[in-house]
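Tutorial handout. Part one gives the primary structure; part two gives the three-dimensional structure as tokens.
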Amino acid sequence: MENPVNLTKQAADKVKEIMLKEGMDDQWLRVSIRGGGCSGFEYVLDFTKEEVEADFSYESEGVKILVDEISAEHLRGTSIDYIDGLNGSGFKFINPNAQRHCGCGQSFS
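Part two.
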């Protein structure tokens, strides 16, 4: 399977900045989904030192990424960008598998 999630340069730069600021530059970025949000699933970004055997592990734009098998099925082909603008800033998920998104962009079905 191809990498389930890829980061844009802007997203990778922001992740690296946060990791450095928080002293977590030796950790992985875990990208996953969980039930919830206003559309059924919500995106989760977290840092971890623990890799599970069934995880997909790879690098995108110099960031070490882990994605569990179940999340990978829902996230296949997803790109994560970082937007910084007048209407706010944050990570934006571009998920080709999502049938609909909520208004905040943090959940999907």
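Part three, for discussion. The longest helix spans residues 9-21. The CA atoms of residues 83 and 89 lie 5 Å apart.
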